[in-house]
Write a structure and sequence with these properties.
Blueprint lengths: L1 H11 L91 E2 L2 E2 L18 E2 L2 E2 L5 E2 L8 H10 L10 E4 L9 H9 L2 E3 L1
Parallel strand pairs: 1-3, 2-4, 5-6, 6-7
């Protein structure tokens, strides 16, 4: 009950104009993040970083957020996340780094994404990925050895076709690559992607 009271206090004292970068960083009392107004925020970098007891996050308004770096870094009790609006996402370095209980990540819009270094580092229990719409930059999924074939194909199918531009990016799959057929691998290479 003390955790619920803590969540209520957050709502009571919430200021929609406050900076959200590092807002709850290292907060061990945060277990259930309440629904609050976040529509003005453009930077949620490290907002929940090292909130090691965080179990649940609501669908916050992230429509204007550009920087998601370290947002859930080391939130190792987080199992799922809601379908955040990532249409303005530019960077998500280590966004879920160290979330070793995270099981699923829904479809995310990566049309504007440029920096995704180690986004899923250490996400060893990740099984379900909805994919990343218009993904055009390299992404490493090798930490997530339990990804389903459907999830891998969601990533490949949602990724941007780079073949017209002559560009190339790499999907680092690690041992996951052995789950794919030659035809499935060819789907990625035909779009200008290198699988590693």
């Amino acid at each position: 009950f003390s955790y619920l009271e803590y969540s209520k206090d957050i709502v009571r004292n919430w200021d929609a104009d406050q900076a959200l970068m590092n807002r709850f960083r290292g907060d061990k009392n945060l277990v259930f993040m309440p629904k609050v107004v976040t529509s003005k925020s453009e930077n949620m970098q490290a907002m929940f970083s090292n909130c090691t007891n965080l179990i649940q996050v609501p669908l916050l308004d992230t429509s204007n957020v550009v920087h998601f770096d370290d947002m859930f870094y080391n939130c190792y009790n987080l199992v799922t996340i809601p379908n955040f609006n990532t249409s303005n996402l530019y960077s998500a370095n280590l966004m879920f780094g160290g979330c070793d209980k995270l099981v699923s990540v829904p479809l995310m819009d990566f049309t504007k994404a440029k920096e995704l270094r180690s986004m899923l580092l250490g996400c060893s229990e990740l099984v379900e990925l909805g994919g990343f719409t218009n993904l055009a930059v390299s992404l490493d999924l090798s930490s997530s050895r339990k990804l389903s074939v459907d999830s891998l194909m969601n990533v490949i199918n949602e990724a941007k076709d780079l073949s017209d531009t002559g560009g190339t990016s790499t999907l680092t799959l690690g041992t996951n690559i052995s789950k794919l057929t030659e035809e499935q691998i060819a789907t990625a290479t035909a779009k200008g992607w290198t699988l590693a």
